[in-house]
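Project standup — Tuesday

K.O.: blocked on the structure for the chain from last sprint. Re-posting the sequence here as requested.
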Amino acid sequence: MSTKPGYDKNKVILLICDGLGDRPSLGGKTPLQAADTPNIDEISKAGINGLMDGISPGIVPGSDTAHLAILGYDPYKYYPGRGVFEALGADMALHKGDVAFRANFATVDEKMRVIDRRAGRKGSKELAEALNGLEIDGVKIFLKNTTEHRCAVVMEGKNENLSKYVSDVDTHEAGDIVKKCEPLKGKEGEGEKKTAKIVNEFVMRSYEILNGHHVNEERRRRGEPPANIILLRGAGSYEEVPSIKARFGFSAACVAGASLYKGVAKYLGMEVIHVEGTTGRADTNLNNKVEAALHALKAHDFVFLHVKATDSMGHDGDFEGKKNMISRIDKELVARIKDADSYIVITADHSTPVSIKRHSSDPVPVVIKGVGVRKDRVNKFDEFSAASGGLGRISGINLMPILSDFMGYYKMYGT
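H.V.: unblocked you, prediction finished:
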């Protein structure tokens, strides 16, 4: 790496541990404080630390909008809807006019009451194939199972008047009746009405097809919840945006397991690296991920490296699981990248406290290590230590300009 920041061009590895931030719970500590993190702490000691709000203080970020912001794109301007990212990340074709959704396999009873909105976190390629290609009111619908219970759905908008301005079917809570899709308030046009009608029929047909499917009969015999319905949310419409290369001047690559993050990367023109064994779950192959990231750094200026499981364990309220996953990340991943010939940046997209099992507006710690960085006195990477660091408290949208300056791709405002 150059020793003359701002003159020669430098590289960056950005590690985002999804949902890493937390609140004190077990023993008065967060999972990050309780984890064994000697390598992350070494980076913290050698770098500049701070806190970061994915969007802005008090705003609870989605993973999609937070990643857009952190990668330098104002989500209030560039956000196309979650479904677009899910579909792109699943390698599904998207064209202008198509409407895409994020979706879950879920478990409902005969009254359409949601028993488990994630169907035991277990999906099925065979069940997905039973629904893929359905046609309703002349609109073809494509569905793909991605990670665990998660799916992506695309409604082909060719020659059809479809709209992303429709409500979610997903209840977001167990115990509630599956919602009806409706046009959003103030968007009650024919396109919205048609799209909502197709969504509702698709959801009902998914139950009719899946409930008695032999895969679900076998799941019931094993005492597992059947994946007997598809719940849609996060409608989006595809639009082209300027790439990271066009906006910032450097080439970028992504190493991730879950489709959402690969989709965000594709949307922004990054090269998505296929890595064997990257599942988006706790069993993801961290060794293969770090190998891929270090290899990608040879051909690209910026590598976005993502780990999902910390967020999933926050949603599950699993303190020990989250703590142990952080320790694994430190030992198997950070130990290998900490001395890379690049700037090293470690942070999260948002907090997912195990105590509340959802995203929160709590800021996340961030550290930047590399040549020319103003090293501060922080010597441990966690939510509280980072608060006294030299970066102070920034918003996600600030991170990419800061890194661009360190990389030598700065843009001066004025003369």
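K.O.: great, moving the ticket to review. Confidence is low (pLDDT under 50) at residues 1-6. The CA atoms of residues 65 and 76 lie 9 Å apart.
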